Amino acid sequence: MTEADTTRRLGIAVASGMLKGVYGHGVLSAFEEAGLRAQVYGAASSSGLSGGLAAIGQARRTGVDYWIGAAGGVAEKGMSRVALDSIEEYGPRLREGLFRPGAPEFLLATSKVTNAAAAAATQGPEAKALGKQLLRDVFAGNRSWVQENLTAAVFSSRAAAGGEAPRLTPENYDAVAYASTRMLHAWAVPAEVDGEAHVDASYTCSCPAREVAATGVSVLIAIGNDPFPLFRDLYASEEIGDESLLGGARVLVVKPEEDLAHLGVDYAAASPEGLVKAYERGLDEGHRFLGRHAEALAPFVAEHAGTGEAGA
Fold first, then answer.
1. Between residues 79 and 312, which one has the greater pLDDT?
2. In whole angstroms, what separates CA 26 from the centre of its chain?
3. For residues 129-145, b (16+ Cβ closer than 10 Å) or e, as one string?
């Protein structure tokens, strides 16, 4: 960015999607190849890893390999173990990169449990049955339990200590990253952050576009992993529209043109071949998106594109 452009800020918010998140990782990899750099990255649930890697300039380097390994481990180890193993493998790299001086701001969403009774339900033996009911509620358009018992908690690497916004730190990163992914119907291991119960971001904030916009960005790219309208949460409480305005930011949405299930990638199961196709689909669409919005995004493209670590 030139000196004249320093008042402009780009934000990127990546939606959750479990294994379908491989598409968003492909889009982020295309941005990295082209030298597009954001000042703020926001992620939720399965996009926590890809969004974090993009923030440190390593999305393309990791590529589809992570997703193939994760999909292969689901049947053998279960969702909780796959998530915990990925944090163990990639956590050191992310903790080092996300909190270095000059790193972009990184937002990672969870859903915080707001009362003791709900905490007991989400952390104990009732959790699986509750999770299945919450999924049925999605199709019924009923978000009453979520409204009564959960609130979005979006942790920021730039939040002030002791401030209203929860702070993401090297010390709590692993706990927040796991909590962000914990869908109750399939994740057996409970999640806590600083002694408080948390569950998957998707119940309240599957795409933290509003929070990224609130940081003062002028352009916000929202990445979805489904061809359907992009919403804030599982219950479609707020649409994130292409070419809309959100908190003063111009919103540009990029998402697949068809359901990735047609390629062999569903939320909880995917073939290696399907994952490669979905990743490449995201990579291709990311480059096309940059071409369509070249004028708007030009101030945020580095002079020398590459696949190494991003600068400030």
1. 79
2. 13
3. ebbeebeebbeeeebee
Q: What global pTM score does this model have? A: 0.94
Domain count, the chain: 1
Q: Is residue 2 assigned to a domain?
A: no
On whether the CB atoms of residues 157 and 103 are closer than 8 A, the answer is yes
Domain-embedded: residue 136: no
Whether residue 113 lies inside any domain: the answer is no
Query: For the chain, how many residues are written?
Result: 312
Q: What was the pLDDT predicted at 87?
A: 97
Strand partners, 40: 11, 105
Q: Which domain holds residue 274?
A: 7-108+156-178+205-300
Q: Which two tokens stand for residue 299?
A: 């101030």
Instruction: Round the average pLDDT of the chain to a whole number and report it.
Output: 94
Rounded to the nearest angstrom, the gap between the alpha carbon of residue 70 and the centroid of all alpha carbons in its chain is 16
Residue 163: CA count within 13 A, CB half-sphere: 12
Q: Is residue 66 part of a domain?
A: yes
